[in-house]
Amino acid sequence: MNRQEKPPVDNLTELMEFVLLGFADMPQLQWFLFGLFLIIYIIILMSNGTIFLITKMDPALQSPMYFFLANFSFLEICYVSATLPRMLMNLGTQRRRISLIACATQMCFVLIFAGTECLLLAVMAYDRYVAICNPLHYPLVMNNRVCILLAIGSWTIGIPVMIGHTYQIFSLSFCRSKQINHFFCDIPPILKLACGDTFVNEALVYIVAVVFVMVPFLLILGSYSKIVSIILKLPSATNRAKAFSTCSSHLMVVMLFFGSGIIAYLRPNSRHSEETDKVLSLFYAILTPMLNPMIYSLRNKDVIMALRKLLCK
Asked: Read out DSSP for 134-157?
């Protein structure tokens, strides 16, 4: 009787594993995609790493704006490292299995870093708001202690929420196919594999997305509405252009990241498509971190000067 009660070892293994399909529907492009994403990963590491280094080393970049930019660049490295190495391994080895614990861990880190990015972008918008709308009090308001507290808050506030959110998702039973039609363990494709009613889980996804995506986004919009109104009142066209240039890079990054994130997580379930989710995830999880350093370096004279100094050494 005891032997009959014990499930086979193979079945236990299947219960504890998922299969990340990724780009399995394009078998002829596996090595091309491996090379492409490897190059993208190297570019992200080198470009964000360079910005992080120059903001720490160059005396001209020792201001709150560049302190937050250094945090942002380091965050981008962490963010892509939560997904791209696993995707590269799957493309290179064609072994797409991932254990339930590894899948939960990956999702948790992705959620933590995504939440941190939303909060950090809101903090960076607040920094620009104080610099432009209240320049005389800027050194006092954005002092070293305040900057450190804002950065620590951005990095840590979401940790308990995202750990709890991940635990709640992986407490579900998964009785359907173990195949995840995605290149990492994201919430929508995981919930599609769950048994029974997932209404509560989906409602919590919307609540977390509103708190960590929509609220920071609305705060950013509020900050920029004030910034634009102040800039338009400046008498000199040169001053207006200079003020806009200090914000344009950050605003472009905000639109890229929040635009794809909001479409991915806050659109109605009826409009969810696995292929669309995959493309949107590629955009905000991989392409945006690659474009961000280019946006900041190409549109920022101080960063360009610091890069020239570093290259001339």
From this structure: SGGGHHHHT-HHHHHHHHHHHHHT
Listed residue (164, 135, 171, 169) closest to 246, CA to CA: 135
Pairwise CA distance, residues 21 & 179, whole Å: 6
Length of the chain equals 313
Q: What is the pTM of this model?
A: 0.89
- What's the rounded Cα separation, in Å, for the pair 82 and 89? 13
* Full pLDDT tens readout for the chain, 313 residues: 444 444 444 443 445 789 998 888 888 888 999 999 999 999 999 999 999 999 988 888 899 999 999 999 999 999 999 999 999 999 988 888 999 999 999 999 999 999 999 999 999 999 999 998 888 999 999 999 999 999 999 999 999 999 999 999 999 888 877 889 889 999 988 988 888 788 888 899 889 988 999 999 999 999 999 988 888 887 777 777 777 777 888 888 888 888 877 777 666 665 556 777 787 788 888 888 898 888 877 667 778 888 887 777 6
Specify which residues 99 forms β-bridges with. Answer: 17
Q: Please state, in angstroms and rounded to a whole number, the distance separating the CA atoms of residues 304 and 190.
A: 43
